[in-house]
Amino acid sequence: MSINDNKIYEIGFIGAGNMAQAIGLAFVKKGMLKAEDLLISAPSENNKQPWRDIGATVTTDNNAVFCSSKIVFLATKPQYFPKVISELSTNTEGLPLTILISIMAGIPLSTLQKVFKVKPSVLFKVMPNTPSLIGEGFSAISHLSDAKPDEISSNLQTVKLLMRAVGDVEVIPESLMNAAGAVSGSGPAYAFVIIEALADGGVKQGLPRDLAIRLAASAISGGSRMVLETGKHTGQLKDMVTSAGGSTIAALHALEKGGVRSAMMDAIEAATNRSKEMGEKN
Asked: What is residue 124's three-state secondary structure?
């Protein structure tokens, strides 16, 4: 569909990659809005096709999305942020914009407010993760600390409702956002490495590759559900699997000797620091 210059769209996405698709397509799939109420901008034809397939409007004009949508998602990579804002009208007076949501890692809300000069109640930062692609995501949400509760309440509820389309949500202070992103946003990558390593170990012991991967993925997935659904401490759940003198305690001893806990903590610290660096750079 071609853009209608006179139409006000319900939701616009500046950036149309995997995360934007996961969120936007979920809105339509779950009946939260119609495809014709979505406006998306992206330079890549590959990223535009999934939106065209559902009947959404696509364009290469980032400013058209910004000036014609009530709710705008800034969904570009953070390194493209300076270029993108140079294309946007930073005077929001008179625009239909009611909510501006950034899913760009590292870029602080104070920077966005300085650029766009919007009220604190309009601006939100959201950190989703890739399981959002299958509706099993988790989104951390933050807003400016000086936003007045009576002014931000309605918009915050709207943002939470929107992000629940792809999984669970939690509102946190922005000061914790980089750490949350290091755990939740980057976390699936750590899980994939662990699954791959477990499968490699199974293959070394004679398991067929496809079976080893399924066993490993099922163990991680099932263990995660037990943490979320039982509410029991991870140490207690671990002890349920660990028999005296058994194979699991032998394996855990090997993990401890390998420094797995320290390595994971170092990974979170590295990811958190890198997010901070990206925000300062941009």
From this structure: strand
